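Ligand-bound model needed. zinc ion.
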Amino acid sequence: MSLSDPVVLAQALIRCPSITPEDAGAMDVLAEALGRLGFTCHHIASATGGPSIRNLYARLGREEPNFCFAGHTDVVPVGKGWTTEPFAGDVIDGKLFGRGAADMKGGIACFVAAVARFLAKGSPKGSISLLITGDEEGPAVDGTVKVLDWLAARAETLSACIVGEPTNPRFLGEMMKIGRRGSLNCRLTVFGTQGHSAYPHLADNPIPRLLEILRRLTEQPLDEGNAHFQASTLALTTVDVGNLATNVIPAEARAGFNIRFNDLHSGASLERWVRDTVALVGGDVEVTVEISGESFLTQPGSLSDGLAQAVTAVTGHIPELSTTGGTSDARFIKNYCPVVEFGLVGQSMHKSDEHVRVADMEALTEIYLHVLDAMVGPS
Ligand SMILES: [Zn+2]
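Prediction:
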């Protein structure tokens, strides 16, 4: 296998049907390739969330800075509607097809190919490492977090990190991510007293109070956004009473909502606001809040500048520095070092006939090579 060609390794990875939590040999394929390039590979298994998950930390060199690439080998289920083989890795009309081609086995292969090309010129001034998890598309409790804990226990540090998620919506060079919004889920249960609808004074109807709480939560925008973030949003996801009777006032009414928030808020400040709003309406209400990620921003600086320059040098585009979209494992890595995200075009990710352009894989490999030159290249 020629490691400087990203398509070959991407095909080998796609041929492992590694639907979370299955690994299906993907981590061994990657470790074997990295071993050939001289990396020391550590397999870190974790099973706190259920089935055992395979993770990999590979490092070349012992010196600082330790420049890291992070990603995942697990993929989402195939779903329906494919006209190509999801685990064959076929190249058709200049496009590589398969589940994970974009998200994100293709990106991993591009980074490995960039390392192979880099090492053909000399050794790194510092270290190159890869932090690869098999639990990104799943619950993400036995993946990147566990590897970061393992690194911290060994007092091993990362200097800067690129996450190779497919950040470009339509064309390569369009967008990199320098932060992400946070996400909070809330469930409300409003309790009342059941009764006959002909005698409402003898009951306590929870529905008007639930509606009043939801009205107050949604009547004002959470903010207007700022220089790096779009406005925070609150989306009602469900309102449930489930009452089939026409003459009964129900005892309970429930609702749920999801808040995607920028760095003008924290999970804690929003939880406080929700609980205060509920208290103003009053009555017996159960509030359950789950914060699945805080917002974060890597201030534009040498890492984002270096990456943006590499993108422009190879593609001619000036990438937008964005914080849009869902969460990613960068939300964990940001606690350890500056982190930015840049990878392939994500247009087909999680869809049928997922694919990437082979020309984009070649360009991304060159972009990563530029970044390696800037971060750990011989001075
Ligand atoms: Zn992904």
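The chain has two domains: 6-180+295-376, 182-293.
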